[in-house]
C-alpha cells in the first residue's frame, strides 16, 4: 500500500541560515473534528445548556474548556447522563453496547462520530460477518479502538505495536485481515503490517486506507520540513494520538528536537538557544488560534519570518450529524456549517 504520493514524499534539505519559522500545511482541524465541534456548538445554540458529551468531543484541552464554558458537560459514560437528556457521542465513535446503554436510559443522542471512523466500524462488521480474525492495529484503551473493537469483540484483537505481532494468535492463518485506528503513525502501522504479513502471508488489507487523510497529510508535511528544522513545535494535547505521532515523526525525520504543547505559554525559551529554524504544526483537533499564539511568541523573539510549507490542500467537508440536521430543520434553522477562520500565508517552496 503506497500511503505517500510521490509528489509529497519528504526530501532532504540544506542547512538554513537566519531566524525563521517553517509553518506546516495542512495542520490543525480536520473535517471530522470540525464537524464534531460544530455539532456541540449547534446543539447548545438550538437546545440550550446543558448538552452532555460522552468523553471528550475531540482530544484537545482548549476545545473542551471552551465548550464547557458554553454549557457542555463532559461525562465518562452514558450512566452519568440524566435519563431523557441529550448526549453527543464524540468524534472517536462508540460501540453498539454504548448505543444500547443510551437507549435504555431514553437518552436523545447526537452521533458526532467521524465518518472515517464509521467506515472502519463498517469494515469490522463486514469482516466479522465473513468470519475473519480481525487484527485491529491501534492503542488499547483509546476511545476509537474501544468503539471499533466493540463492533465484533469475538473476532477482533488489538495489536498495539510491531513488537506485539509475535503474540498474535488466529484460528485460521489464511483468513486474517487487518484494520487500524485512524490516527496512527503511518510508518509504524506499515511496519506492523509488514511483520504481520511475515507471520500470515495471506493477510488481507482493508478495502481502503484506514489511517485518515488528515493524519497522513499532517505527517507528510512534518516530514517535509523537519530536516530543515532545529526545533519542531507541535501544538496539541497529550491524549491526542495524532498530535503525539507528529512529535515522533518530526524526530524520526531529522529535527534536532520536538515538543508537544497545548498553549504558547508552555514554551520554554531555553528551547530556542542556538535555534535558527523552528517548525510549527498542530494536530487534527487543534484550532488555529492556538497556532497563532505560538507564532506571536516566536515573533517576539525574532522569528518573524514565517514561511508556509504546503504538501497538500484539503477541501473535504462532512455534513452535520443527521439527528442535528433534523432538529435544525424542525426549528427552521439554517443547517449550513460556518467557515472557520484560518491563517493565510504564502505557500512557497522554502526548503
TrEMBL record:
Active site: 144
Annotated source species: Sanguibacter antarcticus
Keywords noted in UniProt: 4Fe-4S, Iron, Iron-sulfur, Isoprene biosynthesis, Metal-binding, Oxidoreductase
Function: Catalyzes the conversion of 1-hydroxy-2-methyl-2-(E)-butenyl 4-diphosphate (HMBPP) into a mixture of isopentenyl diphosphate (IPP) and dimethylallyl diphosphate (DMAPP). Acts in the terminal step of the DOXP/MEP pathway for isoprenoid precursor biosynthesis.
A Pfam family per the record: LYTB
Cofactor descriptive note: Binds 1 [4Fe-4S] cluster per subunit.
Entry's Gene Ontology molecular function annotations: 4 iron, 4 sulfur cluster binding; 4-hydroxy-3-methylbut-2-enyl diphosphate reductase activity; metal ion binding
Entry cofactors: [4Fe-4S] cluster
Recorded family membership: Belongs to the IspH family.
Domain of life from the UniProt record: Bacteria
Pathway(s) of this molecule: Isoprenoid biosynthesis; isopentenyl diphosphate biosynthesis via DXP pathway; isopentenyl diphosphate from 1-deoxy-D-xylulose 5-phosphate: step 6/6; Isoprenoid biosynthesis; dimethylallyl diphosphate biosynthesis; dimethylallyl diphosphate from (2E)-4-hydroxy-3-methylbutenyl diphosphate: step 1/1
Catalytic activity: isopentenyl diphosphate + 2 oxidized [2Fe-2S]-[ferredoxin] + H2O = (2E)-4-hydroxy-3-methylbut-2-enyl diphosphate + 2 reduced [2Fe-2S]-[ferredoxin] + 2 H(+); dimethylallyl diphosphate + 2 oxidized [2Fe-2S]-[ferredoxin] + H2O = (2E)-4-hydroxy-3-methylbut-2-enyl diphosphate + 2 reduced [2Fe-2S]-[ferredoxin] + 2 H(+)
Gene Ontology terms: biological process: dimethylallyl diphosphate biosynthetic process; isopentenyl diphosphate biosynthetic process, methylerythritol 4-phosphate pathway; terpenoid biosynthetic process
Protein name as catalogued: 4-hydroxy-3-methylbut-2-enyl diphosphate reductase
Lineage, top ranks: Bacteria, Bacillati, Actinomycetota, Actinomycetes, Micrococcales
Residues holding [4Fe-4S] cluster: 30, 114, 212
Gene transcribed to yield this protein: ispH
Sites where the protein binds (2E)-4-hydroxy-3-methylbut-2-enyl diphosphate: 59, 92, 142, 182, 240-242, 285
Binding site for dimethylallyl diphosphate: 59, 92, 142, 240-242, 285
EC number(s) per entry: 1.17.7.4
Ligand binding (isopentenyl diphosphate): 59, 92, 142, 240-242, 285
Amino acid at each position: 500500500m503506497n500511503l505517500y504520493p510521490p509528489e509529497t514524499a519528504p526530501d532532504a534539505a540544506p542547512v538554513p541560515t537566519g531566524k525563521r519559522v517553517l509553518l506546516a500545511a495542512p495542520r490543525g482541524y480536520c473535517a471530522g473534528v470540525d464537524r464534531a465541534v460544530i455539532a456541540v456548538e449547534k446543539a447548545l445554540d438550538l437546545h440550550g445548556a446543558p448538552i452532555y458529551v460522552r468523553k471528550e468531543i475531540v482530544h484537545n484541552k482548549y476545545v473542551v474548556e471552551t465548550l464547557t464554558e458554553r454549557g457542555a458537560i463532559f461525562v465518562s459514560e452514558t450512566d452519568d447522563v440524566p435519563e431523557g437528556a441529550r448526549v453527543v457521542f464524540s468524534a472517536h465513535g462508540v460501540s453498539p453496547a454504548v448505543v444500547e446503554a443510551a437507549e435504555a436510559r431514553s437518552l436523545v443522542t447526537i452521533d458526532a462520530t467521524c465518518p472515517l471512523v464509521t467506515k472502519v466500524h463498517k469494515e469490522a462488521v463486514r469482516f466479522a460477518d465473513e468470519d475473519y480474525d480481525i487484527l485491529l492495529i491501534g492503542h488499547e484503551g483509546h476511545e476509537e479502538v474501544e468503539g471499533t473493537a466493540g463492533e465484533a469483540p469475538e473476532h477482533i484483537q488489538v495489536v498495539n505495536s510491531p513488537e506485539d505481532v509475535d503474540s498474535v494468535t488466529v484460528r485460521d492463518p489464511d483468513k486474517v485481515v487487518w484494520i487500524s485506528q485512524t490516527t496512527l503513525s503511518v510508518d509504524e502501522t506499515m511496519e506492523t503490517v509488514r511483520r504481520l504479513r511475515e507471520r500470515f502471508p495471506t493477510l488481507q488489507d482493508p478495502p481502503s486506507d484506514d489511517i485518515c487523510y488528515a493524519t497522513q497529510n499532517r505527517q507528510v508535511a512534518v516530514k517535509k520540513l523537519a530536516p530543515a528544522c532545529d526545533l519542531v513545535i507541535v501544538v496539541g494535547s497529550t491524549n491526542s494520538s495524532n498530535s503525539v505521532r507528529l512529535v515522533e515523526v518530526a524526530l524520526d525525520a531529522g529535527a534536532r528536537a520536538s515538543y508537544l504543547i497545548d498553549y504558547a505559554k508552555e514554551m520554554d525559551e531555553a528551547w530556542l538557544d542556538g535555534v535558527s529554524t523552528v517548525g510549527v504544526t498542530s494536530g487534527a483537533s487543534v484550532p488555529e488560534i492556538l497556532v497563532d499564539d505560538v507564532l506571536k511568541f516566536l515573533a517576539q523573539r525574532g522569528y518573524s519570518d514565517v514561511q508556509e510549507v504546503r504538501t497538500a490542500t484539503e477541501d473535504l467537508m462532512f455534513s452535520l450529524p443527521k439527528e442535528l440536521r433534523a432538529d435544525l430543520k424542525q426549528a427552521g434553522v439554517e443547517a449550513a456549517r460556518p467557515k472557520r477562520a484560518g491563517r493565510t500565508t504564502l505557500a512557497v517552496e522554502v526548503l
